[in-house]
């Protein structure tokens, strides 16, 4: 990358670019892993931790009103509905609230459009999970 004043390449520009790319790729991997865990109902939500005897209650950390199951956390919780509604508005499509992944895969779209819509929903689920974890760490219900 050339600097404006000298027209010479900065010695650090390549390093910053590569570091940023590696960080981006790492976040993409984590996001995909979380979505994979969501799709398999494998995340340790409060209901599962309660059943295992690890926690004393199984209330949702985002709303504090219902049991935190996979279905509640990613489909029924008011916070999740707000995130999903924002994602739907972003991709400008009418998308069903359940079986989103199957619905996306069965559309007669180009692979690029499927990838974009899938990434939007993958990031929405990741955001929900991360906000849920922040609520646990800071002991705050939204």
Structure characterization notes:
The protein has 142 residues and is an all-alpha fold. It has one domain. It contains six helices and no strands. Helix 1 packs across helix 6 and helix 3 crosses helix 4. The radius of gyration is 19 Å and the shape is elongated. The N terminus is likely disordered.
Span between termini: 43 Å
Net shape: elongated
Work out the strand percent: under 5%
Instruction: Tell me the structural class.
Output: mainly alpha
Give a brief description.
The chain has 142 residues and is mainly α. It has helices at 13-39, 46-51, 70-76, 78-91, 100-105, 111-138.
Main traits of this protein?
single chain; 142 residues; mainly alpha; 6 helices; 62% helix
Task: Describe the secondary structure blueprint for this structure.
Layout: H1 13-39, H2 46-51, H3 70-76, H4 78-91, H5 100-105, H6 111-138
